[in-house]
C-alpha cells in the first residue's frame, strides 16, 4: 500500500487512519492499533514540521504486511536531519518555540518493534518501522 | 462562561480554565487549540487549567507539548494543571512521557476543580 499526502497538518489524521485500516486484516488489539497509529502520526508530523518546515511537499507512506509483521515507511524530500543520533534523543527538539516535546522518535521506538532512520541533508528523510501484530494474544 | 471552538470547548470556573478537547489531539488539533487557550490565559484571572479527555480517542506527542506549554504559563502564577477522564490509549502516552510527575490526574472535572482549589501541603 502506498499513500502520498501533501504536507498539511490536516492530513495527519487521514494518514494514520489509512494505516490503521490497512492493518485490520492482521486482527490487531486496540492497543496495537493505537501503537501503530501513534508511531505513524509521529513520523508524518515530523515530516511536515521538520522535513518541510511548513512549506509544501509530499509525504509518502508505504505499508507492507509480511506474515504477522507490518512494515511502515514514511518518506519526505525535505531538509533532512543533520545529526540523527541527536534527533533521536528523548526530549531533544530543534523546535522548542513550537512546543515540540522532543518525544516523536522515542514514541516510535516505544510503540513499534524496530525503528530505522535514514536521512541526508537537503535530500530528505526515510523512517522504517516494523511491528509484529498478535504477540499479545498468544501470551 | 462557555465557548465552543475548533477541536475543543472551554469553560471558566472561577480562576480555573477547563478545556474539553473534542478531537484527536495531534499536531493539527494543537495548532487550533493553542492560540485560543493562550488568549484566554493571557486575558488574566486564570490560575489553573484542566484538560478533559472524555472525547479524545487518540493523542500523540503533540498533545504533550500542548499541555506542557500551557502548564508553564500558569506555573509562574502559582497555578497547576490537571487532566480528567483519561482513557486507556491516552493514559499510555501520558505515562510513557512522564507527564504525571508534574500534572495531576483526576477522574472527573468536578473532582479536579475541587482538588486544584485545595492548597498543596507546604514543605
CATH architectural designation of chain A: 2-Layer Sandwich
Nearest-integer average pLDDT of chain B:
91
Distance from first to last alpha carbon of chain A: 30 Å
What CATH first level of chain B would be assigned?
A: Alpha Beta
pLDDT < 50 stretches of chain B: none
Instruction: Please trace the helix and strand order of chain B, writing H or E for each element.
Output: EEEHEHEHEH
Q: Please state the structural category of chain A.
A: alpha+beta
The 3D shape of chain B can be described as globular
Name the CATH superfamily assignment of chain A: Histidine kinase-like ATPase, C-terminal domain
Q: Biggest protein-protein interface?
A: A-B, 25 and 23 residues
Structural class of chain B: alpha/beta
What series of H and E elements makes up the topology of chain A?
Answer: EHHEEHHEEH
Name of the top-level CATH class of chain A: Alpha Beta
Oligomer: heterodimer
Task: Characterize the overall form of chain A.
Answer: globular
CA(first)-CA(last) distance of chain B: 35 Å
CATH topology of chain A: Heat Shock Protein 90
Amino acid at each position: 500500500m502506498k499513500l502520498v499526502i501533501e504536507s498539511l497538518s490536516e492530513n495527519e489524521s487521514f494518514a494514520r487512519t489509512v494505516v490503521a485500516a490497512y492493518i485490520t486484516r492482521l486482527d490487531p488489539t486496540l492497543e496495537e492499533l493505537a501503537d501503530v497509529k501513534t508511531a505513524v502520526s509521529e513520523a508524518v508530523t515530523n515530516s511536515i514540521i521538520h522535513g518541510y518546515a511548513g512549506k509544501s511537499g509530499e509525504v509518502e507512506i508505504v505499508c507492507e504486511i509480511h506474515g504477522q509483521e507490518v512494515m511502515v515507511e514514511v518518506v519526505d524530500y525535505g531538509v533532512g536531519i543533520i545529526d540523527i543520533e541527536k534527533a533521536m534523543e528523548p526530549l531533544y527538539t530543534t523546535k522548542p518555540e513550537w512546543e515540540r516535546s522532543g518525544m516523536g522518535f522515542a514514541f516510535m521506538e516505544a510503540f513499534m518493534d524496530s525503528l530505522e532512520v535514514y536521512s541526508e541533508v537537503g535530500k530528505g528523510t526515510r523512517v522504517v518501522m516494523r511491528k509484529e501484530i498478535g504477540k499479545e494474544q498468544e501470551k | 462562561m462557555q465557548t465552543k471552538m475548533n477541536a475543543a470547548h472551554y469553560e471558566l470556573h472561577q480562576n480555573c480554565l477547563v478545556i474539553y478537547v473534542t478531537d484527536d489531539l495531534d499536531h493539527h488539533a494543537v495548532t487550533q487549540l493553542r492560540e485560543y487557550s493562550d488568549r484566554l490565559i493571557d486575558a488574566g484571572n486564570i490560575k489553573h487549567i484542566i484538560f478533559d479527555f472524555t472525547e479524545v480517542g487518540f493523542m500523540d506527542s503533540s498533545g504533550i507539548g500542548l499541555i506542557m506549554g500551557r502548564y508553564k504559563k500558569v506555573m509562574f502564577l502559582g497555578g497547576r494543571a490537571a487532566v480528567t477522564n483519561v482513557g486507556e490509549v491516552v493514559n499510555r502516552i501520558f505515562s510513557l512521557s512522564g507527564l504525571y510527575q508534574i500534572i495531576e490526574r483526576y477522574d472527573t472535572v468536578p473532582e479536579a476543580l475541587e482538588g486544584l482549589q485545595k492548597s498543596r501541603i507546604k514543605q
